Amino acid sequence: MALVVVVLLVAVLAILFSSPDVPPVTLQAWSSAQPIGFTHIALSELEGTSTSATYGPPYNHGSGSVQDIFGVSIQRAIGVTDPIDPAKDFVVDPLVTVSGQPALKAALVRYKSADQLTRRSWEQAYGRALSKAKIVNSQLEVPPGSYGPVGTMLASFLSMARSGGLDAQLVAHSGFYTTNYTNPLLFIGDSAVAQPSSYWNKIVTAQKMQSHQWGMMNETGSWPGQPWLWLYVMWYQIPPMSTSHNGDVEVIAIMTALSLGLVLVPFIPGIRDLPRWIPVHRLVWKDYYRTYRSTSQGHARGGTSPPAESAKTGPGAQPGPL
Amino acid sequence: MSPHKGVAPLLGSVVNLNFPGHYIHWGFVLLSLANLLVIVAMLIVFVLALTLPFVHTRRTQRGRATNIATDRAPVAGLATASPTVGTASGGVGHGVLDEDEPGLWTAKIRKAWLRYLPPDKMLPDSQPAYVASWIYVFGVLTLMSLTVVIASGTVLALEGPVWWHISSVGLFVNSLHLWSVECFFGFMAIHLWGKFWMASWRGKRQLTWMTGAIAFLVSIFEGFTGYISQTNFDSQWIAFEAKDAMNGAGIGAFFNTMNFGQALMLHIVVMPLVIGLVVVIHIVMVRLRGVAPPIEALPEHLGEPDGAASSITASSTARSSPASPGLSDAGLAMEDAATSREQS
Fold it and tell me: Which of A11, A82, B201, B307 could potentially form a cystine with A266 if both were Cys, beta carbons 3.0 to 4.6 Å apart?
């Protein structure tokens, strides 16, 4: 009977409301919509200044996103387990796969053979030029400058992204079969962190899914999401977690303690007594209490423990904690 | 994403929710209207479950039982019932047990199983008469929702992760999966609220509460792995956002939220096994310990903590109960018990 009720309820809800399915954001869509912003992020990957490049464990040895609590960082203690070099993995390696472009091939050879200092000077020069770049006939036009091979590399990189080739290349690092989307997500995500009006951020904000919008419990469109995460999400809105660099690990610690508390409710004085102090149970067992009202009230008026908790009148009459 | 194809007209949504959501902003609280409606619906159902008079589907067997703890009402959610088999002390199978060769581990397990959880206790067709509130229904509803979640999820697993994006039938099955999950969590939360306010951990029932709470927490993680396995914008963003918490806590070294393959395997293989195990232990504990008696119940109504019959007087067991028009079965049983108390 219960199964029939649930099946009918679920079927009615499914027919009435269906379910959400907003397509994922692609590098192709992002680079086509915001070529300058896309190229800025690509340059930051090359320079090693992006959020991913400075993140820290488990991706690299940076410290930008390393969190600790009471001075202890489990993240740092475990170390790098999924090594990622954004300059190489996100930009240079995908460019190496491009064929039929002698200029790009020469630029890559020149870039790779240059020392670190020279590379930085090219990248910084390109960054200055990029801030004055324009879109002409859907093409990115960057003022000339002494940025060496970087201009050729990033122009090809943008073309590759706009053609959809980069979407495939960033997940192809582990061979023919792949299910790991860490690289493209980190790359797109760097724009969400560095550029408030980035392509991804605009969609996320419109869908009310930003962290400050209690986004983790929300769903796209007007569907209900994960309302059971309200407590977890709430802590992110409250200081000091809302402004702390260690906010994530602080919220995790709070929720771990609260989850443990939920499991151990029967053993926590005060919490386990709440049902007796706030007698919601009288609604559940109203028939029983109606029949035995005088007896139970007499116990209550007398200020003594109720019979269920105080008396053991027969074998197995276990009061249990309350 | 490709448009949905197939037998779309019948299976498409009647109410279009694919528009920017409405949000309630109150101080630092920012809730989507949809989430708020789910929460409000849960609270309303919880209050109704506490206040609405309970409807019995089968009359309590009068004249046989005389104690509130032994007088049985039908199990909530069971439409059919059969007469109680054996006794609560494990009478069923005793003859078989005696014939077992001592020392065989299979026999020992069977003996222990039948001693602590005989068939009539494992699959009861009745409950103590004080089990007379709609709040008791939500444990069964949670279990049935889980059944629909597993069934719809199995179809999605059979067809693969891309199917529901390109097929209208797939979208409908995904909708069944989504709404059964919403129902599952809603019913489970109401069940949890009810059991908290009933202090259902009393009488050596701590493990029952603990396994239930663990099932709730594990389900939240299972739901999370489901959300990041959708292969759409939602999963993309949630996986990216959640990685910082996972990495900060050191979990990211073992569980990469952006590794779709890992998340999917956790969602359809590992976590269902964990949930299944915890739920089975929870149900076994419910059967083993029985339903918690009312708070401040009279001592003679407490029942044994393992769910077996409570201690009752011989005179009360021999007495037949009076029929009182207008009273519910539970009320009758209570009256029986009150009368027997006076007699003893």
Answer: B201
Give per-residue pLDDT as tens, A125-135: 999 999 999 98
Domain count, chain A: 3
Is the per-residue pLDDT at A22 higher than 60? Answer: yes
A96 shares its domain with A178: yes
Q: Is there a single domain that holds both residue A189 and residue A132?
A: yes
Q: Global pTM?
A: 0.81
Same domain membership, residue A197 and residue A56 = yes
Q: What is the pLDDT of residue B307?
A: 42
Nearest to A274 by CA among B214, B198, B136: B198
Same domain, A199 and A217: no
Contacts of A177 (CB under 8 A, 6+ apart): none
User: Does residue A246 share a domain with residue A225?
Assistant: yes
A35 shares a domain with A123: yes
**What is the spatial distance between Cα B301 and Cα B309, in angstroms, rounded to a whole number?**
10
Helix %, strand %, coil % of chain B (to 5): 60, 5, 40
- Asked whether the beta carbons of residue A16 and residue B241 sit closer than 8 angstroms, the reply is no
A258/B contact by beta carbon, under 8 A: no
Q: Within 13 Å, how many C-alpha atoms sit on residue B147's CB side?
A: 12
Q: In terms of residue numbers, what domain contains A230?
A: 211-263
Q: Does residue A234 form part of some domain?
A: yes
* Cross-chain Cβ contact A281/B295 below 8 Å: yes
pLDDT in tens, B11-24: 557 788 878 888 88
Count of CB atoms within 10 A of residue B82's CB? 10
Instruction: Give the number of other CB atoms < 10 A from CB of residue A136.
Output: 8
State whether A259 and A299 are in the same domain: no
Encode pLDDT of A58-86 as tens digits. 999 999 999 999 999 999 999 999 999 99
